[in-house]
Design a protein that fits this description.
Blueprint: E1 12-14, E2 20-22, E3 29-30, E4 33-35, E5 42-44, E6 48-49, E7 52-61, H1 70-89, E8 96-100, E9 108-114, E10 122-124, E11 133-140
Antiparallel strand pairs: 1-7, 2-7, 3-6, 4-5, 7-11, 8-9, 9-11, 10-11
Length: about 150
């Protein structure tokens, strides 16, 4: 599955101006702090890196048909959404590489599986150009980006 695919005339998920990818900055920290009994302060236990939760949000872009053909346009949305669901659910317990190249930088990758509780793929908004939105999560057990 590609996000922000640059293939001409392809239907796609777009991050765009209203969307975002959250969770690719600093590695998440897992820390436990207990109250110190019978005195002020706390006991700060050793810290570890936590699993990385990556949240994608954006909008559906349909380019294979014109909106004026309403039935074909809505059908294209339904086909794209079904393909996205299928692609994500195939990654439920099978890790795959999330890859990207920051502008002016070198390629990055992290191994991810699909979903967290509450982070399942969701589509919302009207079936109109620029109105149909999506959100989903990926999770990386090892938070290291290479």
């Amino acid at each position: 599955m590609k996000v922000n695919d640059t293939t001409a005339d392809a239907d796609r998920l777009m991050i765009g101006d209203d969307g975002q990818i959250v969770g690719l900055d600093g590695r998440p920290i897992r820390a436990e702090i207990d109250d110190q009994g019978q005195s002020d302060g706390g006991i700060v236990h050793p810290k570890f890196w936590a699993a990385r939760i990556i949240v994608f949000s954006g909008e559906i872009h349909i380019q294979t048909v014109e909106f004026e053909d309403t039935v074909a346009y809505i059908t294209a949305i339904n086909v794209l959404e079904a393909a996205v669901i299928s692609a994500l659910e195939a990654q439920l317990n099978s890790a795959s590489a999330l890859t990207w190249t920051p502008t002016g930088g070198s390629g990055k990758t992290i191994s991810c599986t699909y979903g967290t509780g509450g982070g399942e793929i969701q589509f919302s908004g009207a079936m109109l150009p620029g109105e149909r939105k999506f959100t989903f999560t990926l999770v990386a057990a090892d938070p290291t980006i290479t």
